[in-house]
Amino acid sequence: MISSLPRRRLVLNHALGVYHFSIQGRTVCQGPMHLVYVRLALNSDAYRRCFFQLVLCGHKLEPLVLVQLSERYEQMEYLGRYIARKLNINYFDCLATSYRHVVRHWPLGSTFSPGIVLRKTGTYDEGNSQWDPDV
User: Fold this and answer.
1) Which of 75, 92, 104, 116 is 20 to 30 A from 132 in CA distance terms?
2) Organism's domain of life (predicted)?
């Protein structure tokens, strides 16, 4: 296939947790992995019918439509989650707040990550300890 668009390249480096986006071999941007994601986008027509499409998005990335318009929400959601899992990137539902989001990568230093409990320092006191290692 011949195209007049310059060649674009997106590299996901999971070992370092970063992505690299270039056009014609020139770096456009690079950054942490949490800035690249698959989104289920919602569109509607004049008759208020809902259509969904899967889009690869990211910070300073041109949105790339992976799957065109479909009225089948469940299939599109399944496919979006599948693609995100295989690429090991985040998945976001069409709603801004949704329990259907799948977040695999969080910003470094984020304290909002569910399941991550920050370690408290200075809470263990040897003199008042109820724990006896010899029991």
Assistant:
1) 116
2) Eukaryota
Residues 6+ apart with CB under 8 A from 38: 54, 55, 56, 57, 66, 80, 83, 84, 87, 89, 90, 91, 92
**Per-residue confidence (pLDDT) for residue 120, from 0 to 100:** 47
DSSP state of 102: B
Residue 83 CA to residue 91 CA, distance in Å, equals 9
Question: What's residue 26's pLDDT?
Answer: 93
How far does Cα 17 stand from its chain's mean position?
A: 12
Q: For each successive 10 residues of the chain (135 residues), what is the average pLDDT? A: 79 89 91 88 90 91 89 92 89 76 66 48 47 44
Q: Which long-range contacts (CB under 8 A, 24 or more apart) does 126-129 make?
A: none
